[in-house]
């Protein structure tokens, strides 16, 4: 199931952070990878699974994934956070375009196809982010909904009027700006706020696509410890960005 790399199309690396995925994750991932290759048959696609200290991955599942072709499995034994897993995965990317999303493809494969199209049709764009629909926010558990609303308001005040939603779990970038990604120090899920701060400072071309969550996605809530940790990280990023 390998796909060769045509010379006239940009190659693509898909980075997938992984932390203790739910039951059936392996078969779902294989289905999504196959679907993406069907939708982008002329592109070379590399998949990078960046394990972030998972404790319940089985060897036969990893063998199934790596036998799919052009799949890299990074086994990071310590749980450091989503930001760390994405940065480590991106370091192994060989694609001209690097897209990261969650392991369960919460926005489907069409969003990735649309991102690739943005890069191909807009040479001045080097970073694309997913902008979540209002329907998405209505489905979130209460604490996540409140936290997300707070982030959107603060992002508009401190980042840019054009960038409000930094937390959708899908982003894309050209490999040329990977050094900026590697400068990000935040390891947890608010690392993207620090990343976008840096991109805006560097004058990097940024575009967005509208995304909707798959109907099958089940949203989990944050506990108070996680919320406090992310609030501290968020405050540090914003404070540093304003200095």
From TrEMBL:
Signal peptide: none annotated. One of its GO terms (biological process) is protein N-linked glycosylation. SUPFAM superfamilies: Nucleotide-diphospho-sugar transferases. Transmembrane segments: none annotated. InterPro entries: Glyco_trans_2-like, Nucleotide-diphossugar_trans. It comes from the Bacteria. CDD domains: DPM_DPG-synthase_like. Residues 13-178 form the Glycosyltransferase 2-like domain. This is Glycosyltransferase family 2 protein. It comes from Dyadobacter pollutisoli. The lineage of its organism: Bacteria, Pseudomonadati, Bacteroidota, Cytophagia, Cytophagales.
């Amino acid at each position: 199931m390998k796909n060769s790399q045509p010379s006239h199309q940009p190659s693509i690396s898909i980075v997938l952070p992984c932390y203790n995925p739910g039951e059936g994750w392996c078969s779902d991932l294989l289905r999504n990878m196959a679907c993406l290759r069907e939708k982008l048959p002329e592109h070379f696609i590399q998949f990078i699974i960046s394990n972030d200290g998972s404790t319940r991955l089985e060897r036969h599942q990893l063998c199934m994934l790596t036998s799919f072709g052009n799949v890299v499995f990074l086994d990071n034994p310590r749980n450091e956070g989503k930001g760390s897993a994405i940065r480590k995965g991106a370091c192994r990317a060989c694609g001209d375009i690097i897209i990261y999303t969650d392991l369960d493809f919460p926005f489907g494969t069409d969003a990735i196809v649309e991102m690739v199209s943005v890069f191909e049709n807009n040479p001045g764009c080097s970073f694309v982010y997913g902008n979540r629909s209002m329907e998405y926010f209505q489905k979130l558990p209460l604490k996540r909904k409140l936290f997300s609303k707070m982030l959107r308001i603060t992002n508009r005040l401190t980042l840019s009027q054009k960038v409000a939603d930094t937390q959708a779990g899908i982003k894309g970038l050209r490999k040329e700006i990977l050094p900026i990604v590697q400068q990000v120090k935040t390891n947890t899920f608010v690392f993207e706020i620090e990343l976008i701060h840096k991109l805006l400072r560097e004058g990097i071309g940024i575009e967005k696509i509208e995304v909707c969550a798959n109907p099958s996605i089940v949203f989990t809530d944050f506990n108070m410890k996680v919320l406090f940790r992310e609030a501290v990280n968020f405050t540090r990023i914003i404070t540093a960005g304003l200095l």
